[in-house]
Amino acid sequence: SSRIFSGMQPTSDSLQLGNYLGALTQWVALQEGNQAIYCVVDLHALTVGPDPAVLRERTRRTAAQYLAAGVDPERSLLFVQSQVPEHAELAWLLSCHTGFGEAGRMTQFKDKSGKQGAEGTTVGLFTYPVLMAADILLYDTHLVPVGEDQRQHLELTRDLAQRLNARFGAGTVVVPEPHIVKATAKIYDLQDPTAKMSKSAASPNGLIELLDNPKVIAKRIRSAVTDTEREIRFDPVNKPGISNLLTIYSALTGRSVAELETAYEGRGYGDLKVELAEVVVDWVTPYQERVHAYLDDPAALDGILADGADRARDIAAVTLDRLYERSGLLARR
Ligand code: ATP
Ligand code: MG
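Above: the input record for the complex with magnesium ion. Below: its predicted structure, written as tokens.
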């Protein structure tokens, strides 16, 4: 039995299909036989300067989507990051072990701070990967199920863990491994199939937002950018649009990509898009019903999250005590 930890940011009203296929389906699968801990990382979402009321609503919506996807709060631990203060406390400690240049090499920071450069961004966005390392190391995590875009942050987390063990003695923290499932590790934007699908993308037209109107979802799939050939073939280099649609189709139906290529031999892109849109709508409709059932009872939802935070704190406090003690801080009480 391994300890599993992962989280998502409440940066949108809805998760997008990449979050579901790249991470959430793995979360659900890994609950079996493991000790899984899943977090809504609201402190991370503060890096994008959200409206307070909107952030609170999105935090509940994100938790409801974990539950609707199959995260089971009886078997696993489900909570909100800001309700366990040890995350922010460990992040400070880790920031004192992180090189400034090391943090500066994180490509997500470069992408997200974008054209504004260092002057237009915040220290919080810069130290985001350090907080993420704290999230993971607090729970003596073995495996972190994430999408491909988080691989570099996981590498930093591992480097920090090894550094702490070298400095303060073997066994100070567990060195975690990423759990990245290749087939669905990176779902692409439907309008720009060379860019990652992201819930906070500048334009929503290339997104499949799981809580969107199913008619809009179907329309976005039918409008997906493809190429000028006719052949339905998995070839991510030359046919990124078609390959992305085949990846999504395969992941949602369990049919292999090879089987889909055969089934669509001699047929047009239009057929593939229309039929994939049906697959997505058939799957997303009951998912939306489950999400709304959780959102209709916010007191019950908040209760699940508060209970999860209590249980998470019991684990997090032990790790932080150990790290404080080894760092030479006086014992916490
Ligand atoms: P944001 O634009 O706010 O960063 P996001 O869509 O990237 O939103 P995150 O909350 O940053 O979502 O990430 C949640 C999880 O979803 C992470 O494990 C991440 O690796 C995974 N993920 C995000 N986008 C994709 C994608 N396009 N394909 C596969 N996995 C993804
Ligand atoms: Mg992201």
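Notes for the reader.
Residues 298-327 form the longest helix (30 residues).
DSSP finds 13 helices and five strands in the chain.
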